[in-house]
């Protein structure tokens, strides 16, 4: 599926081919909350990195989160791309998996498929003021689920 996306101010526009286009995961970790500016964000759309085409690259910034583990702190491998003009979170790229790019669903302008199931993850670090839906289609994880993005899409017949 071809995904077209942009930042809020329109200085950055991009498109890519998604193999996993369903925005079924909502992450409540502090990195996603603070870099995307909300209570939890639909994340992990999966696309092929070699199909990513960007207009307005001069307006891109990259943020690498600091991961705290007790007294230790390391730099995340994930590179969160954002517009330096308006701050919109656009996509994540991690060189550990160079064949993939993960567009933020919030930056996608293309109509996305509606998920038949919602995975709420990283609930162990969500903000206390955030309500989490608890319906028949909601599945909850304190950390990351074991099922991968690809496995979930395959199980739901949505893998491109």
TrEMBL record:
Organism for this UniProt entry: Cognatilysobacter lacus
Gene3D superfamilies: 2.170.150.70
Top-level taxon in the UniProt lineage: Bacteria
MF terms (GO), sorted A to Z: carbon-sulfur lyase activity; metal ion binding
Coiled coil feature spans: none
Keyword terms, alphabetized: Lyase, Metal-binding, Zinc
SUPFAM superfamilies linked to this entry: Mss4-like (SSF51316)
InterPro entries: CENP-V/GFA, Mss4-like_sf
Record keyword Zinc present: yes
Family (UniProt): Belongs to the Gfa family.
Name the record gives this protein: GFA family protein
Domain CENP-V/GFA as annotated: residue spans: 3-138
């Amino acid at each position: 599926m071809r995904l077209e996306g942009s930042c809020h101010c329109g200085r950055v526009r991009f498109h890519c081919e998604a193999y996993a286009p369903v925005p079924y995961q909502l992450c409540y970790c502090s990195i996603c909350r603070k870099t995307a500016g909300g209570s939890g964000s639909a994340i992990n759309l999966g696309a092929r990195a070699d199909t990513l085409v960007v207009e307005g690259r001069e307006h891109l910034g990259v943020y690498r989160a600091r991961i705290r583990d007790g007294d230790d702190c390391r730099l995340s491998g994930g590179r969160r791309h954002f517009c330096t003009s308006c701050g919109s979170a656009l996509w994540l790229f991690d060189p550990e998996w160079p064949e993939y790019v993960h567009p933020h669903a919030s930056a996608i302008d293309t109509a996305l498929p509606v998920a038949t199931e919602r995975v709420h993850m990283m609930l162990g670090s969500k903000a206390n003021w955030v309500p989490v839906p608890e319906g028949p289609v909601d599945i909850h994880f304190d950390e990351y689920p074991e099922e991968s993005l690809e496995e979930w899409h395959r199980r739901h017949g949505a893998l491109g």
